[in-house]
Design goal:
The protein has a single domain, classed as Flavodoxin domain (Rossmann fold, 3-Layer(aba) Sandwich), CATH 3.40.50. It is built from 5 helices and 7 strands, in the order βαβαββαβαββα. Strands 1, 2, 3, 4, 5, 6 and 7 form a 7-stranded mixed sheet that branches. α4 links the parallel β5 and β6. It holds the Pfam family FMN_red. This is Flavodoxin. GO terms for molecular function: oxidoreductase activity.
């Protein structure tokens, strides 16, 4: 039975899009077997999708020192329905922002800690246009979280 990786993202810019594509590329690497990768914009994700997933990658710009309103909305909609049922599931996070990314990461950490999710990889933080090393970090993030679902 295959596992499901849910990528919940808010992708309002070309830079965020590049990062998302790199994460997806890593998560769908041919060496990763029996992991279905599902992408959902943060404003459309439903609690049932979060409940059905075995792991998560979250992507957001850092806006005014916090995660995007779209990702916060996703958490608001899904938090209580998923509170007990998704504990100990792996997750990863990528952020794009020019400053104030610490507040965004702190906010996501507080919510994922409340959900009982476990960090599967270090957060990827990119400022400005993602360069090759940054995109490799995004690829590795997707691959790392997906690979943990194979175990």
């Amino acid at each position: 039975m295959s596992k499901r990786l849910l990528i919940i993202h808010h992708t309002p810019s070309p830079h965020c899009q590049e990062m998302l594509e790199a994460v997806v590329s890593g998560a769908t690497d041919p060496e990763i077997e029996d992991v279905e990768v599902i992408r959902r914009p943060a404003l459309t994700v439903a609690p049932a999708e979060v409940l059905d997933a075995d792991g998560y990658v979250l992507g957001t710009p850092a806006n005014l020192g916090y995660m995007s309103g779209a990702l916060k909305h996703a958490f608001d909609v899904c938090y209580y329905p998923c509170l007990d049922a998704t504990q100990n599931r792996p997750f990863g996070l990528y952020l794009h922002g020019n400053e104030g990314t610490e507040g965004a990461e702190r906010g996501v950490d507080a919510i994922t800690t409340g959900l009982g999710w476990r960090r599967a990889a270090a957060t990827v933080v990119v400022s400005g246009k993602p360069d090759k090393p940054a995109l490799e970090d995004c690829w590795n993030l997707g691959a790392t979280v997906a690979a943990q679902l194979m175990e």
